[in-house]
Amino acid sequence: MSVRQWAADLMLGVRFAFTGGREGWTRAVLTAVGVGLGVALLLLTTAIPNALTVRHEREAARSDITFALEPMPKANDTLVIADTDNSFRDQDVRGRALEPEGPRAPLPPGVEKFPAVGEMVVSPALKELLESDSGALLRERLPDRIVGTIAEEGLIGSAELAYYRGAEGLAEQITSGRIERIDRFGDPEPGEEKSDPVLLLLILVVFVVLLMPVAVFIAAAVRFGGERRDRRLAALRLVGSDSRMTRRIAAGEAMAGAFLGLLFGAGFFMVGRQLAGSAEVFRISVFPSYLNPSPLLALLVAVAVPAAAVLVTLFALRGVVIEPLGVVRAGRPARRRLWWRLLLPLAGLAMLYPMIGNGRDNGDFNQYLVTGGVVLLLVGVTALLPWIVESVVARLGSGGVAWQLAVRRLQLSSGTAARMVNGIAVAVAGAIALQMLFAGVDDDYTKSTGQDVSRAQMEAILPSGVPMDQAAEKFRDTKGVKGVFTFSEGWLGDRRQDPDHGTTVTVGDCASLREIAGLPSCADGDVFAVHGAQWDAGEDVAKLVTPGRKLYLDPSYEGGPKSHEIPWTVPEGVKAAKPRTGLLAGTDRGGVLITPKALPDALAPALDGHAYLRLDESVPDVHDLVRNTTAAIDPLANAMTWAATERTDRFDAIRTGLFVGAACVLALIGASLLVSQLEQLRERKKLLSALVAFGTRRRTLSLSVLWQTAIPIVLGLLLSMIVGLTLGTVLLKMTGTPVRVDWAGVLSMTGIGAAVVLVVTLCSLPPLLRLMRPEGLRTE
Amino acid sequence: MSIGHTLLGLLESGPRHGYDLKRAFDEKFGHDRPLHYGQVYSTMSRLLKNGLVVVDGIEAGGGPERKRYAITDDGITDVQRWLATPEKPEPYLQSTLYTKVVLALLTHRDAADILDTQRSEHLRSMRILTDRKRKGDLADQLICDHALFHLEADLRWLELTAARLDKLREAVTR
Amino acid sequence: MTPPAGSLLSADQLRKAYGPTLALDGAEFSIHPGEVVAVMGPSGSGKSTLLHCLAGIVTPDSGTITYNGRELSAMSDAQRSALRRSDFGFVFQFGQLVPELTCVENVALPLRLNGTSRKEAERAALTWMERLEVDDLRKKRPGEVSGGQGQRVAVARSLVTNPRVLFADEPTGALDSLNGERVMELLTDAARSTNAAVVLVTHEARVAAYSDREIVVRDGKSRDMERVV
Questions:
Q1: B interface toward C at CB cutoff 8 Å?
Q2: What does pTM read for this prediction?
Q3: Domain boundaries, chain C
């Protein structure tokens, strides 16, 4: 067989695909859309590892951590940089204050010129936020004039909020840990990034779940218009093409749709790539430029998809004998067997099983096992469904005429019926599992901080040297703050360097101290030792706090910069105190408590100020009001939220996204259902007219069409619920998340699936009624 | 139909009397029109003269004398030749009906009427034949079918002519 | 015009247009109980349209159809459907058997549409299948039987409700002459035995010869040959 003959046959098929009239190109376009979606998803999938790598590289390139023991000396190529990371609402804001110390100071990536004091350069997303009404509150905190934007190479995502602001006087505070002197940006030894296994799992599952129904859809789409194609092939046989030629021509037809699909796919991918630039999922956004699939993988997709389309066609034709005078389906196929169909999902479970619990201890998920397992489980749906439909339909009893017509038809062609709903079943099963996973993981996210936050909900850390009473005053004046407890905290060790034992030292007035310990009595000037606390090395307290013992505040550690190492002698008359559980939930505080009068002035520089704030959470944006106050007290100060705020809005966005995605896939499948339904009805035009002629009620026929789709879809949805819930449970167990069924999600997904069928039936009713008109009897 | 050849053929299975021959002929072929004995007699005389049959014997009885005829070798050859010669298909080129239609057109009468009436008449015949066929045996069926097919052919011609009347009118009145 | 005396089904001045094409243009028709009337005419002459109008499948644009003293064109679609279920039977050229149902289920279908129980309907169906000599096919599906057998099954189905009028539209059109004649014999015998009227649309004279009389439809106009002669 010559290559030319092959090519000629395939080309003939391609021509048929587009010249088959309206039906022909509808089929070609639907196939192409399906293939296109598949291709776009595949391309996105292949681009994701690349995107994560680029993000990691960008992150490393702007790293400003030196790991140096000693601060490097000031030079004309050094820069003092302060980490002023912050939060706004539930978004992180990356912030740096810059103070160049010479003309050759390194510029951060993506920044053209150092902002002067009172100026800042911001990321486009932050700029947009600051200029919007909703960003007004943040603007208060970042009042500097915006003199430019950070270019793409300085950001790790299109939605990242980041700024660099000019600063002065940072050099004096270098020891505080959040400030460093550097002579270049970039991680000197960038390591392999270890991505969050749960995130990776989510990405994998999302793509498998979206790809599977598309694959099923493609498999169904290349069979569109099968009957008509069969007739055409038979006609070709009649004029002398042999059976291999007709098969090649059929393959050519399928290939045409697939190639068109490749074009569509490239288009979808480009659009999706742009859209991806504006989306943020789990706080990760990417730039479109990150999403460049590796050429090899893209090539693989371009070859594999049309090849798959051709293979599916040939597979579908395997039981068909195309004779010159018509198409003969190989006799009644053997009764479907259950065992190998069950084997698929079981194998899938077996692949997933070893990874149960891996997510909790931050272990790895084997990507191949995860993908393989999920794919097998979902493929199991498509394998099990025909068997279930066949066995159930075979047992369905008698009923009215409509029921009888539907059941008989299903009995005769349960495979076709199952194939029609396979896509929907797979999509729904996947969506249910995914939604369970999302809901569970998200739940976990918000609940893991689940602290008792009844007494304080925020903590502001103020650098040493900030007068605490003034700070407390400012917090008290902030709207929404109901109570303020301020402490200065530090760490005591038994040696200057590398102490063996150590404990916390907390300085505060009596009222504040009573919040964290049970004091027998308290007067300014007292010193207490809290024994037996779980935290703060409470067991060391007895050893360390003996009158006259010399301890060192802020000791140095090997490998770290030299710290204050201020000696402090334990005074006489230290009173014993009992630990009291948490100003901050669950934690009690041990160590040494000192009232202000008992505090030697020398210790002050080694103590950080901590303000614990009790908030009225009903005040809108109370957290950001506090952050603003914190920033006003000291730009380097940081405020942390301890409250376990619900992040439902974030989940809502994902749920909406999932819904839209699932709905789109289902709509596509619905469209294909409709096309094949109409095709089927058209083929029965004569019969329908004859049935109407001898008095069949339209209702009877409409009902039979409804039953015909409803029976397999109900079975399909039941199966997809079982598989979906199983998969969801396994995935949750893998991430170590407590299993909880999101019934609302399950119902809404099955609801969408059922709605698709209903819509398809409704849409096929007008043509059905039209076909039932007596004109159908006219032969001339 | 050649009666001589038919009678000869009947003799091939064995010698027969004249009346026997007539009965056998009527039974098999003469459904519509039984043979007159006179025709049998004259035909046999001719065959005898031509040496295709011989008189096998004469039976004297109560009635007229009865000759038994037997076929000769020449006779068998003759039958053989006759059977092997294909019948000339009827040319049907002279058709009264066609003449009637053209005349009607020339005299501006309704030619369609003539055709319809003729069809009705044909159908009437066909109904009778169909009815006979339903009641008769296989031989009846085959004979009636032969006739029915011919009548059907006429009817087809009628239909075709009816469909082309306008053209025909143009052609004949020009 | 009043319907001819004793006629079961009659039509007068029927007009029906499909778009610009006039299918019927003043056609007339009448049939008596037990009578077999052939509707003849060239292709596209309006034969089938006449049958569809007479059977109440299609409503004519104008004209009257009277069945058993009732005016068909005055009935609603539901009433006409009910009439077709109860009083009329149909045989078409092809494509009329439901391929998923077995032969006996197909024959029983009209009875079931009338509300007869499945068991009873299938028993009656079997009786008719015996009369049409196809009772051995009861478990087969239409795809598994020959054209002639299928057509006999269809005839059985058309007669199972004991219709008073049987409409047959080119019932032998897809059959060879031997099978066609057998179907015609069985059909007319069965109809005569139940005194049903048969409206037989055909373009084949040999099929029309099974009728008692014929009418000719040409260009939408009908011609009753009995009245002419």
A1: 112-113, 116-117, 119-120, 122-123, 126-127, 129-130, 134, 148-149, 151-152, 155-156, 159, 162-163
A2: 0.65
A3: 9-223
